[in-house]
Structures are given as C-alpha cells and as structure tokens.
Amino acid sequence: MALDVIQVEGCYVSSCLPKALFVPSPSSFPRSKRDHVHSSDVLYFKPKKKTVDAKSATPSTADNGLPVAGRQHLSVQTDLYLEELCDVIEEADAQCETDPLLDRPPSPLFVPAKSGPDVATQIYPGELFDFDEEVEPILEALVGQTLEQALIEIMAEEELAVLSDLQIDYEARRNAEVAEVKRLEEQERRLSEEKEKRIKEQEEAVSLEDEVAKKIVACIFSQNYLSELVPQVYKKLEAEGYFEVEDPEMLEIEEAFWPWLMNEVDSEIATLEASCHLLDTLIDDSIQSIAETSVIQPEKQNIYPETTKYTSEEVVEDAEVNENTEPNNASDETNEAI
Q1: For 231-274, what is each residue's pLDDT tens digit?
Q2: Which of 26, 101, 143, 207 is least surrounded by Cβ atoms within 10 Å, i.e. has the fewest?
Q3: Are 5 and 23 contacting, i.e. CB atoms less than 8 angstroms apart?
Q4: Is 259 part of a structural domain of the chain?
Q5: How far apart are CA 164 and CA 50, in angstroms?
Q6: Could you tell me if residue 154 is inside a domain?
Q7: Residue 97 forms part of a structural domain
Q8: How far is CA 121 from its chain centroid?
Q9: Which domain holds residue 265?
Q10: DSSP 14-75
C-alpha cells in the first residue's frame, strides 16, 4: 500500500502521541456515518523515499525487528468485534427507616411573680356608668342624623318635582316652537310653490300671447293677400268660362225658400210626433183603466160585455183614424206650401 493509516487506541497512547495522529478507522464507523467520511478528514503519513547508496548500503532495521529512529513499537488492538463482559456483579438489598419530625411545643406564657399586697375596691351599680346619661348624646346624634337625612330627602324630592315641572314647560315650549317652525316652513313652501306656479302661468300666458299675436299677424297677412288674390282668380275663371251666370230666381229659391220650407216641415213633424205620443199615452191610460175596472167589477162586465167591447174597439179605431188623417193633413199643407 502506498498510504498507511496510523490507528491508535488507549489512554497511554493518547498521552504519548500528538493529538493530530488520533484518527479513527473508517471501518469502526457505523455504516450510516461511514459514507460521510472523506479522505480529506483522515490524516495520512506518506513515507519518504530513501535513496539507496551502493557504497553505504547497510542491513535494514526492519529485518531485525527494531523500530525506526524516532519511533517505538506499541501493542495495538486490531480486533474487529468487541468482547462481551460476563463478570457477575455482586448485589445486596438494604433498607432504612426514619422517624417523622415532631413539632416544637408552644412556649408557656410568662407570668410574673406577685409583688405587693392584694387590695379590693367596692363599686356600686351605676357608679362608673349610667346608661340614661350616657345614651343621651348617642340618641341625639342618631335622631339629628335621621332628621337631617329626612330633610335632605324631602328637599331632593321637591327639587326633582321643580325640575320635572321645568322639563315639562321646556318640552311644551319646544314643541310649540317646533310646530311654529314647521308651520312657517310649510307656509314658505306653499308660497314658493305658488310663486313658481304664478311664474309658470305668466310665462305660459306670455308665450300664448306671442303665439296669438303671431297667428293674428299671419291671419291679417293672409286676408290682405287673399283679398286681392281671390277676386282676381274668380274673374280669370269667369273670363275663361269656368263659371256660368246664375239665375236670380234659383238663387232666391235656394237662399230663402228652401230654408223656410225645411223649418216648416220640421215644426210640423215635431207637432205630429207630439200628438202621436199624446194619443199613445191616452190609449195606454184608457186600456189600463178598463183592465182595472174589469178586474174590480167582474159582474158589471158580465152585464154589459158588448158595450165595454164596443167602447174599447171604438177608441182604438178613433186612434187609428186620427193617426191616418194627421199625416194626410201634414202632406196637404206641405203640398200647398210648395
């Protein structure tokens, strides 16, 4: 091998050799760490090449088993596996017990020894403390405090009542002011609306007046223009023979007679319709009265059946005769007028 790795173990070796020489063997690493060991992390020593001189050739020190100068032989463990330690360790069970600590008892009270003779004093009831006298200031304080508190509460109630009255008055005044403000706002709104309405009406009236004035001007202009144009057109058409000279008698008949005739015919027809309507009413009334009479007095109808029948038939015939004669009279009057 060209390179030799120096493997050393043990405590003695670490004390003899420098620390740079203590490099673990890659084979001693676990497999997971063995792959991460690089050759740059291991310290190798490359032996120097020696020049061999033929004259000064001496037998090698390796042949006699002696170390090279500056080195020494050491025993090194080169086993690949660790040895199992099978020594039995002696064991023994032992136990101990401790008593609980007790609290220190309390120290006794110090009682001084008596010095001097014993003396007694007679105290009668009410001599040191009289309840009736001692309770008066306490009662005065309690009663005074109670009265003062009562007065304070009464004054507070009166003050609250006054404040409530003031609040009610303030709310009433405020409501009145709010109502007045609303009324003024509503009045102002109505006035503004009325003003806008008046302005709009005035604008419409002005625009209408302008339009009417324009129409009047246009009408006057058209009348002035047509007053000269129409006669000229009629004259031109008459000259060309489009209009014939009308007969004055026919003109008088068309303008006077026919309107009068139509008015007279209309009045006669209206009179005829009124008389027919009146006659129909009379006939209906008579028929209704006859029917009522026949229902109320059936015996009388049995006594005079022919008279009643003749009377009704006569009334109907008279009505038909009147209806036939009145149109004939109207037609005769029309023919006479024509």
Answers
A1: 788 788 878 877 655 567 777 787 888 888 888 999 999 998 99
A2: 101
A3: yes
A4: yes
A5: 127
A6: no
A7: no
A8: 93
A9: 248-284
A10: HHHS-GGG----GGGS-HHHHTT--GGGS--BPPPPPPPPSTT----TTTTTPPPTT-----
Collect all residues with Cβ–Cβ distance below 8 Å to 26 and sequence separation of at least 6.
Answer: 34, 37, 42
- The answer to whether 328 touches 321, Cβ cutoff 8 Å, is no
Picking from 58, 206, 127, the residue whose alpha carbon sits closest to that of residue 198 is 206
Cα angle 279, 281, 286 (rounded to 5 degrees) comes to 95
Domains in the chain, number: 1
User: What one-character DSSP code corresponds to residue 10?
Assistant: S
Handedness of CA 30, 31, 36, 37 (dihedral sign): positive
pTM of the model: 0.25
Three-state secondary-structure class, residue 101: coil
Residue with tokens 């120290």: 107
CB contact at 8 A, 337 and 264: yes
Q: Identify whether 276 is part of a domain.
A: yes
What's the pLDDT band for 309 if we cut at 50, 70, 90? very low
Listed residue (63, 60, 67, 47) closest to 6, CA to CA = 47
Q: How far apart (Å, rounded) are the C-alpha atoms in residues 100 and 81?
A: 54
